[in-house]
Amino acid sequence: MTPNVLAARRERARQLAYLSTPALWPVYPFLPVVRRTPGADLECGLLVDVRGVFGVCGFSATVFRVNLLARPAALPALLALPRHVYDSADEVYAAGWRVD
User: Fold this and answer.
1) Which residues pair with residue 84 across a beta bridge?
2) What is the pLDDT of residues 57-91, one digit of tens each?
3) Could you give the C-alpha distances from 26 to 14, 51, 91, 94, in angstroms and in order?
4) Could you tell me which residues are beta bridge partners of residue 97?
5) What's the CA gap between 23 and 5, in Å, rounded?
6) What is the rounded distance in angstroms from the CA atom of residue 89 to the CA atom of residue 20?
């Protein structure tokens, strides 16, 4: 394998580990993520351990469209935010979201 392929595999594995393991998140219960699309503005979002903090299931692979510093304090306000819902960390990664 070429060094580029190995580096890409390592980066993907690292990203998936962070996206799927809240215990690794440096600002738990939040994980800031970004999506860089050529020709478009930088998109900011947050993964939130909603189940671990609030006991609500179904949001483990949901990117809430908010900056870490502008996040709401209450759960109803967080759940009211625009969001992208995925089925797994693999889908979050495939959609272009990366740990910031």
Assistant:
1) 63
2) 999 999 999 999 999 989 999 999 999 999 999 99
3) 14, 18, 22, 22
4) 35
5) 28
6) 6
The CA distance from 46 to 71, in Å, is: 9
Q: Token pair of 50, please? A: 């909603």
Which pLDDT band, with edges at 50, 70 and 90, does 34 fall under?
A: very high
- SS3 string, the chain, reads CCHHHHHHHHHHHHHHHHHHCHHHCCECCEEEEEECCCCCCCEEEEEECHHHHHCCCCCCCEEECCCHHHCCCCHHHHHCCCEEECCCHHHHHHCCEEEC
Q: What is the pLDDT of residue 3?
A: 78
Q: Whole-prediction pTM value?
A: 0.91
| Structural domain for 34, as ranges | 3-99
Amino acid identity at 8: A
Retrieve residue 40's tokens. 């478009």
Please give the pLDDT value at position 40: 85
